[in-house]
Amino acid sequence: MPLSPEQQAEIDAQRQSPSQxxxxxxxxxxxxxxxxxxxxxxxxxxxxxxxxxDAAICQAARVSYGKGTKSVTNDEGLIRYLMRHWHxxxxxxxxxxxxxxxxxxxxxxxxxxxTANVNEYSARYSILDREFYIPAREHxxxxxxxxxxGRGELLGDxxxxxxxxxxxxxxxxxxxxxxxxxxxxxxxxxxxxxxxMNLPANIYTQWYWKVDLHNLFHFLRLRADPHAQYEIRVxxxxxxxxxxxxxxxxxxxxxxxRMGGATLSATALDCVRRMVKGETVTQENSGMxxxxxxxxxxxxxx
Length: 302
What we know:
- Its cofactor is FAD.
- 47% of the residues lie in helices and 14% in strands.
- It is of the alpha+beta class.
- It folds into 3 domains: 5-133 and 204-259, Gyrase A, domain 2 (2-Layer Sandwich), CATH 3.30.1360.170; 134-201; 266-301, no CATH class.
- A 5-stranded antiparallel beta sheet has the order 1-2-3-7-4.
- Strand 1 and strand 2 (43-51) form a beta hairpin.
């Protein structure tokens, strides 16, 4: 189960004890506080705390008192201007703290985003739960033949069944040995900090992850992208749904200019101008490599 009974009881108690505050709150975010959103087979994402909203971004941009501007229209227009012109500092005034439960191999991808504050569950102090990520049948695929870091075609039924059985058996056997090494039933047992090295990368860990909105948008741009690995992408998508409720103006601008937009090199932009003038532009006369041209065509095709 994603949440333990103890965690669920703690969440229920927190939700039943609201506190009054004079600080800015986001109605869209308030509904997410302490609510766990399930991800994968045993994982979740839940909001622990947050600071700021759309108005706080505008307030910081203008270094003003109270609300950002006189009208909602002006606030949204300002946020779109900031996003369009890469003025990132005002977005750093908003922060979010998340509690995430995720497989270790996903955590190792995630931690490459070094612009956050992280505190992970300690396997030196505590014993990890017997919970492993086992991919669903529809996500068991072969190595891509065109992308060295991606998946290709789905495995056939027999091969997928064989692989899934290996994953389950190896995970269970590794955990059995982990328990045996730290057993306290009449034996001294191995230190937890050493016993954990026997565990597979698909075991679940947990952490608190606190990040400002500017760096969170960078995380989402990379990890919510269709080309990102599925297992981290579903976490990014769950977070994106929360962010869209928290700062709707900022998120819409992010979707438009970052997720849905494209950055063109000076060479590519020159090609577009030539095309608009009616010139036939090919890879051979574009000044681009084959790889650059292929990506350029992908942008134009959409």
